[in-house]
User: What shape does this take?
Amino acid sequence: MISTVMPTYARANLAFERGEGAYLWSTDGKKYLDFGSGVAVTALGHCHPRLVKALQEQAAKVWHTSNMYRVPGQEIVSRKLVDSTFADTVFFCNSGAEAMECSIKMARKYHYDGGDHDRYRIICAIGGFHGRTLATIAAGGQEKHLKGFAPVVEGFDHVPYGNLNALRDAIGPNTAAIMVEPIQGEGGIVPGDPDYLRRLRQTADEFGILLIFDEVQTGMGRTGSLFAHQRLGVAPDIMGAAKGLGGGFPVGACLATEKAARGMTAGAHGSTFGGNPLAMAVADTVLDVMTEEGFLDRVSSISNILRQGLERVCAPYPKIIAEIRGVGLMIGLKCVTPNTELIEKLRDRGLLTVGAGDNVVRLLPPLIITESEVNHALAILSETLAEVAA
Ligand SMILES: *Cc1c(COP(=O)(O)O)cnc(C)c1O
Assistant: This one.
């Protein structure tokens, strides 16, 4: 008989009842070091005291009023996002997929309102991931996500990630935008070459098309800057954010320049829950914590310590770990042996990680991770690698 929870996930038989900082406690009383952060979501760790306070205080005031009215929290959070990014304006939604849907709709509407009704196609990268709605699975282009859900939403072309010539060749009279992740996350932690990402900007300008970055996973401090592209001196026209933005409270955002958002007038797009007062109270506090003096510098320095430790711990096991890659606290261990085996063995020893494409184990610890927690994780990894090797 089908489970009452629709069985769309291959879940581990493990449940948690409490979390604090980088640790989770399972219902059977075991303590786990969380290097998955619920897939880059709990960026400030579990139950960060300031997030708990912000949510509790807002919960006692008002939860939801709808976007028929002004929502003061949206005005505050959008101001903070605009002040710390390329963007002039923000649409609030509830997830990463919705942030990318908004990005796609905005790119089409931009050209439509400019009188160019035939520019609707978006060039995406092979190995990309943008969510699980009909349009975002079409954008991702992965057979395993598309199979059985035909007809595929029209208007997405796919080129190899990192190949500028292939991308330029794919641009035609119907092209509206380029849409990529600065570092492919689900695809297996594949960092985009900084030069490639900069040239995407030049290419978009040359052809009069828009550049969309999907920073749903790379954003919110994960790579040591608020958004990954900010380290590269390149800015998109449109960007999706979600995951870490609410620190565990569901919220997404689509950021854009004034020009790119020219078609997003009253009635063009909407969401019942998007940017509700609870989500905004938490996102506001997440942004406050992350933009405090020294916070992002600390992410960079602790990520260097983790990275060096990983190089040291993995070096003796080239038959298990082929490569360590990524930026900041978004690290992938490219495995030779099945990544699932390593993930299970790490979990048995109390370290939570996340799988990714290309046989990769993802390490996505909370940004507040300490050196002793890093050392704890490295010790577990070292023991586990020894076990796998034996
Ligand atoms: C997780 C993710 C999404 C989808 O986010 P959901 O909140 O699951 O809809 C989109 N793009 C990227 C890069 C992601 O990592």
In short: The pocket of pyridoxal-5'-phosphate is lined by residues 95-97, 100, 129-131, 181, 185-186, 214, 216-217, 242-243 (CB under 6 Å).
